[in-house]
Amino acid sequence: MRKDRVLVVGHRTPDSDSVCAAIGYAYFKNLLDESQLYVPCAAGPLNQETQYILERFGLEPPVRLDSVAATVADMQYSKPIAVSPDHSILHVTHLIKNKHLRSIPVVDADNKLLGVIDTLHLAVLYAERLEIEGLAASPVQLSLLVSVLQGKVLANTGKVTALSGNVFAAASQRGTVLNQVGKGDIVILGDRTDVQTDLIRAGCSALIVTDDHPVSDEVLELARREQVLVISSPYSSFATAKLINLCLPVSHIMSRHVPVAELHTTISELKERILESEFRCAMVVDSEQRLIGIVTRSDLLDPIQKKVILVDHNEISQAVPDIEQADIVEIIDHHRLGDISTIKPITVYNEPVGSTCTIIAQQLCLHQIEASPEIAGALLSGILSDTLLLTLSTTTEKDHAMAHRLSAMAGLNLAKFGRELLEVSVTTKDIPAQELITQDFKEYLLLGKKIGVNQIMVLDDDEIAAREEEIKNEMRKLCQAGGYNLLVLLITNPLAAKGEEIWVEGEKEIVEKAFGVKVTGGKCFVPKVMSRKKDFIPRIGMALRS
Prior knowledge:
The chain is α/β, with parallel strands linked by helices. The chain is built from 19 helices and 23 strands. The chain has 4 domains: 4-70 and 306-425, inorganic pyrophosphatase (n-terminal core); 89-128 and 251-300, CBS-domain, CATH 3.10.580.10; 140-247, HprK N-terminal domain-like (Udp-n-acetylmuramoylalanyl-d-glutamate--2,6- Diaminopimelate Ligase, Chain: A, domain 1, 3-Layer(aba) Sandwich), CATH 3.40.1390.20; 433-545, Diaminopimelate Epimerase, Chain A, domain 1.
């Protein structure tokens, strides 16, 4: 059976904590719950540090997730009944009646969608097409015609396999009939022997004798000599003519203007297509136009949503796009409470520790699950990255305890691996200025102010100072484009451990009031290594309130 997927995803600017937390929590949930498939995801490109961690521990990158809007792929639908363009219209009417269908897709031998036929087409056929359809454009196989008529072939010396040409019902006087019928035509008539022989001599290609009337030996002998096909039908002339129309292939009346959806089509787009369609449905196809399923209006009555677990954030501004359309089932975080709300109770783990990976490691311990060395290494990396090697003010005893426990599981020397990770992550060389200010960017809405904050680490103060003008120019552009009241870049040198330089764009007086400093030339210095969530944002919030 197909398992429902639950997407485990961090914030829009993935850092190592959010990505490793998604991977670790999906691992944990898949061990506990076999009824669903938990998929680790990332809501943006991975930074250099995170890529290194995944390669270091041989882990698959998470699925890139640009939106959690529900798509056709999230729906449950069965394989539809389809017909070939060569099937008779009568075959379709039987399917619609017996299977209680409204629309039937038409496909070729490779299951590629060609068109659709539904009750509307059949109604038009009965209401508007009052004449007997000619077979010149759409020849009918003899075997199909005989089967539909439940008739018998009385003469076929010409070995006819398909009938084509105009079809007439010989209901008029003899002279009128002979004037109407031309060479190669097909005639429906009763037991009028004289007219039958005259029609054969006139060059008709086939006679269909109705009501099971007997055909004289004289007529049959003449028909065989002239290679004219003779068929006996048990039905009346009216019913026989009607059935000939139903022998026509589906391609004769099907519509080629079919509402189509693919697996990536959003449910909102799908609804529009179905509502605008005369067929009240849409055909689901793959990238090669092969039919996968059919979606009707009734399939859209129940809400269709992606199931999502949020890790390392709980604010709409930081969440993957279209989060409002998703079914959030859990939140695992270590930040302040944000503005995400749900329509039903959910599980929330929110603890003031230094890393989301610490919370997930605690869950593994609580359930007495020994993580694999690869998962342990990833969770350890997330903790060390988010606490700056357990030195930030947000670091707790729980972070220390989980870091030591995970390093043992992964077979790593904690101090040595921490330095290894630091060397990979702390570099600004060859990284574009625009990426430097957005790679771990967080957006906050505080008391009507829109604030953007990024925090980077450097090992060489001169290296970042040489790029000051370039970086501040990009900050200015981002501040204007995003409509931020305040845009801040926190620059930390973990080796110096003397404090943090703050580069400011926008309303600098907010920073001055919050930290009691003077912003000169768009920057200032705070003699403390700060955490955004524990130190910087709370101080900014207090300054705005006062």
